[in-house]
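User: Okay, second chain of the day. Same drill as before: sequence in, structure tokens out.
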Amino acid sequence: MLVVQEINRVRGTAVEEFESITQQLWKAAAPFGVTPAWFFEVSHGTGPSYCVITGLRMPDWSSWESFARAVAYGELSAITEELDATRYDSESSLLEVLSEVPPASGETSSPGLWVQRFIKPDAGGEAAVGRPGIVMRGCVGGSPDGITILSKESPTAVLDILTGESGSSDVVGAAESTWVLRPSSWSPLQ
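Assistant: Same drill. Structure tokens below.
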């Protein structure tokens, strides 16, 4: 399984338009085998303002190639141009899903935020495989071979992570960057 993740720096006055056009793009991309994965806003104070993280799942490399061609100069290029008009820029990366473990029962419906951590390639991030959340390795774009961990956390755990109170000495505690993410009401990951 592959995920195309985009970090979008959205124009403040175009946030709602960006969200609407993203939904249109995702519907139009379905024939390419693409399914929505997530739509998160980076919480203020943990990253740049008006930053939206989107994710699209793809079953294999051929789906990615078809989707990439359609976005670049095919049937999805016009809607991509509309999307570009709502943002300052974006950074895409293609990630390979190494493991996907759901949160413990009862935690999926509880309130919480998502936390995305990035671990450098040489920091042993693959030790996070099998932990609750989605563990991904960079393939194209971004930081190749780095490990990205996306996990749902309770409000208390998020506070501990941000203040350094968690005392985590494992590989996740050694993350190079940590963003707290808030899902939109229609994001597949809540």
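The chain has four helices and eight strands.

User: Thanks, on to the next one.
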